[in-house]
Amino acid sequence: GSENGSSSARGNSDSCIFEVQVADRVPLVMTECQDGTLTNITSDEGCEASIDLAIKAISIPKVVDPCVVGSDNSVSITPVVYRYTVSCKEQDADKNCLVYDTTMVATSLDGGATWDNTENLPLGVTLFKWVFEDAAGNADSCLNGVNVIHDYAPNPDCSTIDTLRPVAKEGECEIVFGSIKDMLADLKYYAVDACTNNSILGVLTHLSGEMLEDDYVMKVGDTLTFLWTFTDEFGNSASCEQIMIPNHQIPLDPACK
User: Fold this and answer.
1) Using CA atoms, how far apart are residues 186 and 188, in angstroms rounded to an integer?
2) Beta-carbon neighbour count of residue 26 at 10 Å?
3) pLDDT per residue as tens digits for the range 116-137
4) Which residues pair with 42 in a beta bridge?
5) Is 209 within 8 Å of 233 (Cβ atoms)?
């Protein structure tokens, strides 16, 4: 408080006491934020990840309050943490997400300890919004999160993939590969994602890793090996072989050996 007084020549006096309140308008200084960062973490056997694993994986933000003497971390300012799950609502033909759906799941008053640490996070993106506010109402926030992935290979049933036996034209002992591409295009084999149970369409290539050229000549009786590869959205893959043995027409042509 301050005192302001006055006196006259005769010794009469008066005084006034008033108080001055200094407002703290100094912004908080965020440290270790890594705002907007997503950290990949691998799920456990249940195709989920624990909150403990997520919190350990990300950079937990801290703040410095410049108006608090000796303040060097966020211990004196407890953040409110909001947790969101993010899912894709609309995809294009290449499975690129066009519209995301963000849903708040839970709020913690002490940075995570009040969450049930036995609770697990689903596959995909979970965001954490950390909000810090000091006693004067100055606030700052940081947004980061985890992307829960899995590393389990898809489950194709290779026993359903039959041997291919394309037939050469009458009187011919060879088949040009390009002539059977329509037949191959009609083939569809699927695997099951180990965690999501989604169907995964296989991609056919030659065993060498690339598809044969259209002008490649296959001789009757040759054995060619192709490969169906099934890759999930997390990059895990599995494969099945498919055998192709070109045949000639009946009656058998003795010239084809």
Assistant:
1) 6
2) 13
3) 666 788 899 999 888 888 878 8
4) 149
5) no
Amino acid at 180: I
What is the SS3 assignment for 207? Answer: coil
The answer to whether the bond into 251 is cis (omega within 30° of 0) is yes
In single-letter form, the type of residue at position 96 comes to: N
Kindly calculate the radius of gyration of the chain based on its CA atoms and give it in whole angstroms: 35
| DSSP element (H, E) containing 51 | helix 51-57
Joined together, the tokens standing for residue 225 give: 């090996």
The Cα–Cα gap between 103 and 75 comes to 29
Q: How many residues does the chain have?
A: 257
Among 234, 150, 151, CA closest to 200: 234
Q: Give the pairing type, strands 224-231 and 29-31.
A: unpaired
Average pLDDT per consecutive 10 residues, the chain (257 residues; last block may be shorter): 55 76 77 85 88 84 75 61 85 79 78 60 90 84 91 95 93 92 94 93 92 94 95 94 89 63
What's the pLDDT tens digit per position in 145-179? 999 999 999 999 999 999 999 999 888 889 999 99
Q: In the numeric block, which tokens belong to residue 178?
A: 């390009």
Contact between 123 and 150 under an 8 Å Cβ cutoff? The reply is: yes
Residue that is written with structure tokens 């926030």 in the block:
141
**Cα separations (Å) of 196 from 76, 122, 134, 147?**
43, 10, 43, 15
CA dihedral for 204, 206, 209, 215, sign (positive or negative): negative
